[in-house]
Design brief:
This protein is α/β, with parallel strands linked by helices and 245 residues long. Helix content is 34%, strand content 20%. It has helices spanning 19-27, 36-45, 60-72, 93-101, 114-122, 139-149, 165-176, 199-208, and strands at 4-7, 30-33, 52-54, 77-80, 106-109, 129-134, 155-160, 180-185, 193-198, 215-219. The protein has a five-stranded parallel sheet, sandwiched between helices. It has a five-stranded mixed sheet with strand order 6-7-10-8-9. The chain binds S-adenosylmethionine.
């Protein structure tokens, strides 16, 4: 059978793509992309004329079956998402599971992912961490998840949309206490901004400056005391102007 390649693509800056991903995207029979128009821009930038098909949340059942049949028939398929690593808060996991069940080889091509990029620049401990993806939307599930996180000792990484950032920061403050935290916005893009401070400082900042763009929140783990956790973690943010490119 063919091979399913999981290809990491940029999370903003188009230069963040590996030579190997570029070669594989050239060579495969088919690229399955979350949003074909979005991926077409990337391919055009690198002059890659490959056949594209869509594979996203809403067609993943039917399209997945289709792709698996093509793989079984010997076609090589590259899976890409709109940003970063497919399968991380993006479609891909199911396809991998099904491919493995059917004995189709799956090869990962590493590259950018917003969670790791945010973690390493946050200044918070990367020794042990947990990735929460997007917190559940439903109030009950959300409350349950937040209460689990209240005594989580590892650094916590959360994805969030700009219009929900304030609500999430408020809930984190209520449930976890005023921890050291970092909001990493628009990583690798023109308006990249990494804001570090206590959760309450971040709240204050984003209440005055409406959150825009894509965010990763990184929050310090539980250290045994709710009250003093953010002491000594004053605002150490770099604004886009101060950053060296
Ligand atoms: N597969 C992607 C990855 O490997 O990081 C994640 C896809 S998920 C649908 C999109 C979320 O990732 C955004 O809501 C945001 O939380 C985060 N994200 C993606 N690109 C980002 C960037 N350039 N800066 C900050 N956060 C980003």
């Amino acid at each position: 059978s063919g091979v399913l390649y999981l290809c990491a693509t940029p999370i903003g800056n188009l230069e963040d793509i590996t030579l190997r991903v570029l070669r594989v995207l050239q060579e495969v029979d088919l690229i399955a992309a979350e949003d074909t128009r979005h991926t077409r821009k990337l391919l055009n930038h690198y002059d890659i004329r490959a056949e594209l098909t869509s594979y996203h949340d809403h067609n993943r059942r039917s399209k997945g079956e289709n792709l698996l049949q093509q793989l079984a028939a010997g076609q090589n398929v590259a899976l890409v998402s709109d940003a970063g690593m497919p399968g991380i808060s993006d479609p891909g996991e199911e396809l991998v599971v099904e491919a493995l069940k059917r004995g189709i080889p799956v090869i990962p091509l590493p590259g950018p992912s917003a969670l790791i990029t945010a973690l390493v620049v946050s200044g918070l401990s990367a020794e042990r961490f947990v990735f929460e993806g997007f917190l559940p939307r439903k109030n009950k599930d959300r409350a349950g998840r937040l209460s689990e996180l209240a005594t989580e000792g590892r650094t916590i990484i959360i994805y969030e949309a700009p219009h929900r950032l304030i609500k999430t920061l408020e809930e984190l403050l209520n449930c976890l206490g005023d921890r050291p935290a970092c909001a990493a916005r628009e990583l690798t893009k023109r308006y990249e901004e990494v804001r570090r401070g206590s959760i309450s400082q971040l709240l204050e900042h984003f209440s005055a400056h409406a959150p825009k763009g894509e965010f990763v929140l990184v929050v310090g783990g539980y250290s045994g005391s709710r009250e003093t956790a953010a002491e000594g973690w004053e605002d150490r943010s770099l604004t886009p102007d101060e950053q060296v490119r």
